[in-house]
Specification:
Number of strands: 0
Distance between the termini: 55 Å
Oligomer: single chain
Shape: flat
Radius of gyration: 20 Å
Largest sheet: none
Number of helices: 4
Structural class: mainly alpha
Number of domains: 2
């Protein structure tokens, strides 16, 4: 049996989650320049993948490699930071 206090907290959490979902930006609502830049970046990653280089290319691949190597703080890092951290660890 839930108390009134617990139900009120649950209602607040649901409202907070709904507000957060509304604030979240999707690609469709981004400026055209940003969408273009993201598309170019994605195309560059796909091109590098097609050339079949041995090094990881995508952020997810870099994160997986960092997890294998035990890089601390990897979950807070972006793609460039992960690449730098992996280069430093050699």
């Amino acid at each position: 049996m839930t108390t009134e206090k617990q139900r009120a907290a649950a209602r607040r959490n649901v409202k907070k989650a709904a507000r957060a979902a509304k604030r979240q930006k999707t690609i469709a609502s981004m400026p055209a320049k940003t969408r273009t830049a993201l598309g170019r970046q994605g195309a560059a990653v796909a091109r590098r993948k097609r050339t079949d280089r041995s090094e990881p290319k995508t952020g997810q691949e870099l994160y997986d490699e960092a997890r294998r190597r035990g890089v601390p703080g990897r979950s807070k890092m972006g793609r460039a930071e992960l690449a730098r951290a992996l280069r430093r660890r050699g």
